[in-house]
Amino acid sequence: RLYSECEGLLFPSLYEGLGLPVLEAMYAGAPVIASSLPPVQELSRGTILLVEDITSSREWAARVVGVLRDPAEAARRAETARGQSESYTWDG
Predict the structure, then answer these.
(1) Residue 47, C-beta contacts closer than 8 angstroms, at least 6 positions apart
(2) pLDDT tens digits for 37-81?
(3) Taking the chain, what is the end-to-end CA distance rounded to the nearest angstrom?
(4) Among residues 75, 73, 86, 53, which one has the least CA distance to residue 4?
(5) How many CA atoms lie within 13 A of 42 on its CB side?
(6) Among 14, 68, 81, 91, which one is least packed by beta carbons within 10 Å?
(7) What is the sign, positive or negative, of the torsion defined by CA atoms of 45, 47, 48, 54?
(8) Radius of gyration of the chain (CA)
(9) Which ranges of the chain would DSSP assign to H, the alpha helix?
(10) 8 touches 67 (CB < 8 A)
């Protein structure tokens, strides 16, 4: 419920094995801004906003402002990400 009602998920991870919170937010239809780590890139396949310089507070802030200023684009991306997330199941 929290993911489906939020303005977006901010996932500033410096190391990640899978990115389960990213996948959960994608499935719930929340806009996602995340570190551009390889596991997150593979999981999202271009459907979420990635921060290339994960140590740059300016880049993180710019992505957040972009989502808040253009909710229609954020919703479009979130819907695309939701579709992508449905290809992942616990069964493999």
Answers:
(1) 26, 77, 80, 81, 83, 84
(2) 999 999 999 999 999 999 999 999 999 999 999 999 999 999 999
(3) 24
(4) 75
(5) 9
(6) 91
(7) positive
(8) 12
(9) 2-5, 20-28, 38-44, 57-69, 71-85
(10) yes
